[in-house]
Amino acid sequence: MNLAQARGRAAKLRDLINDYRYHYHVLNESIISDEVADSLKHELAQLEERYPELITPDSPTQRVAGAVLPGFSEVRHSRRMLSLNDVFSAEEVEDWTKRIKKTEPTLRNEYFADIKMDGLACALIYNDGLLVRGVTRGDGYVGEDITLNVRTMDSIPLSLRSGTGFPGFLKDRTEVRGEIVMYKADFDRLNEERHKLGQPLFANPRNTAAGTIRQLDPSLVASRPLHFRAYDLLRDNPTEVLTNSFAYQALADLGFSTNRAATLLSSVNQIMDFVKLWEHKRKDLEFNTDGIVVKLNDRQLFEKLGVAGKAPRAAIAFKYAAEQATTIVKDIFVSIGRTGTATPVAVLEPVVIAGSTVQMATLHNEAEIKRKDIRIGDSVIVHKAGDIIPEVVEPLVKLRTGKERVFKMPSLCPICGTKLVKLKAKDAAWRCPNPNCPSRTWKQIQHYASKEALDIEGLGEKNIIALLDKGLIRDTADIYSLKTEQVIGLERFANVSASNLIAAISAKMHPSLSRFLYGLGIRHIGAQTAIDLANHFKTFEAIMEAKVGDLTNVEGVGEVVAEAVVEYFTEPVNRRLLDKFKHLGVWPEPIRHAQAGKLIGMNFVITGTLESMSRETAADKIRALGGRFQTSIAKDTDYLVIGNNPGASKVEEARKLGTNTIDERALSQLLD
Length: 672
Ligand code: IVH
Description:
Blueprint: H1 3-26, H2 34-50, E1 74-76, E2 85-87, H3 90-103, E3 111-117, E4 120-127, E5 130-136, E6 142-144, H4 147-150, E7 173-181, H5 184-196, H6 205-213, H7 218-223, E8 227-235, H8 244-254, E9 263-265, H9 268-281, E10 289-296, H10 299-305, E11 307-308, E12 311-312, E13 315-319, E14 324-336, E15 341-353, E16 356-362, H11 366-372, E17 375-376, E18 379-383, E19 391-395, E20 405-406, E21 430-431, H12 438-449, H13 461-469, H14 484-488, H15 495-506, H16 513-519, H17 527-537, H18 540-545, H19 548-551, H20 559-570, H21 572-583, E22 603-607, H22 615-624, E23 628-629, E24 639-642, H23 648-657, E25 660-663, H24 664-671
Parallel strand pairs: 2-13, 22-23, 22-24, 24-25
Antiparallel strand pairs: 1-6, 3-9, 3-10, 4-5, 4-7, 7-8, 10-13, 11-12, 14-15, 14-18, 15-16, 15-21, 17-20, 18-19
């Protein structure tokens, strides 16, 4: 990007970010998520770093945060209210402890960790035990006087509890700092009411809490559910509060709510365990969190290490990876899936989201691209959560230069040149109807060998391509006629892996009926439907001959699924493929009558690890007997099987719902 281009881009970014800030701070509504705003600010900061001449005095990068609003009087903080430096990985935590140990070689490994609440910071000042002032963080030095508003909040004691183990704190000046939050459930309820009244909705709980506390009318504040959770206790004489663990104990005694999760930890490993635990459990918290605060427990050392910039050296915030970021769509291509579905995919300027680099994102189908108006060259918001396939959320239309190109769906398959078709006029997706399309073959074999299907180790994406390229296989059945000698010669396969691969394939000559059925990759047949069909029909031949009416007799199988099954078995190519399997001696095991159905109608969840078998095996056995294996507890779960190191949240959920819990031995008896 040259200077002129950078100038144009920077101006557009500034406008968009300023627009966002106006909506966020003045109108209390979010036009884009905080994560997206951060991503845009980051890009602007980088541009300004490269071309300092682009910095303008009103650039969002030049803003001093939290200026005092007119209407509230200013209050100077007794001690500065600091921010925290963010870290994102175990290495950075390690580096942090090493840095401290450099200045403090005798550092005891005593860390105090708490959940980082996503609300607004507030300082409460008590004189001789009586609440005299509530102050917002403001710019850290000077905040706004919100005394009248905090006095309406039930969770803030108007006087410190007396007769406690800490009478000293009821004398002179005691300052309590903490976070004001709105609970997620209260936020949802509030928005529901606003929706009913036709009022504009609030963007998120933090925004709503911050907007509420800045209201000049305390009765409005009183009507909104806000909560205060304490995290700091300050006395003029700091030796009265020597550790953070002591501070939390005293805070609870003085009448404040603190997070029960807060705890002492003694190594980087323990810190990371705590981080991971809450990354998993954070959805169950009443309020939003975006990370974990870790501080040295020793507060004198905390003071001694001092401040760098706006943050203390003795504390960090471990931030959970953002799930959204902005990037640019460099191109759009069409990918052909195993059933022929043509899916447009965006090629992205690589961007790190939720801890991994994202280079491609699904655009679902042509109609979706039109609906969202995503163009090649657009700056876009990309979303990725956990294992979910990254997705383009929307374009940032205001950042357009006019050079963006509208995507046109090709009429031919980009891989084999066959004309794309729609099976039904109302279908959203175009499909390549050629069953021999190389892209379809490759993805079909990949699906057949995948974990949930035949689970053939060594037959991954790249190996399949290598075998297809050399003409050693042309369809799924061909893998069974591969010989070790043929494979050894290929670049990707050393001696051992070639014979391992052939052994792994021949071990799967007689797969279970459900896995084989699922592995064929019939449209709409997921792993569970395959199990239901297998349990109902018992043999593969019976499924092959079933009519739509027979198939819809199976619970959970509707017309669409039934038609897809019948269609699959009438297609001559598929018939030929199945003949080939049979000829090679590959055929699924029928379900034996005596056994089948013992667990029909029973739903199981497993938590923790089992000693006698893997979870996959246990799940297979449960399914083979007609039971269902679920990944999370629901109202219809019959048994929670508790293995070693069970997950606390599952056990708790089972208790709440009154689900039966059994151990591994009891499960084995059921499976016997
Ligand atoms: S301890 C030096 N503990 O996070 C500041 N802060 O980025 C030490 N926050 O403005 C603060 N939850 O308002 C601490 N459990 C917690 C917190 C917490 C949220 C906020 C705090 C501060 C910001 C720091």
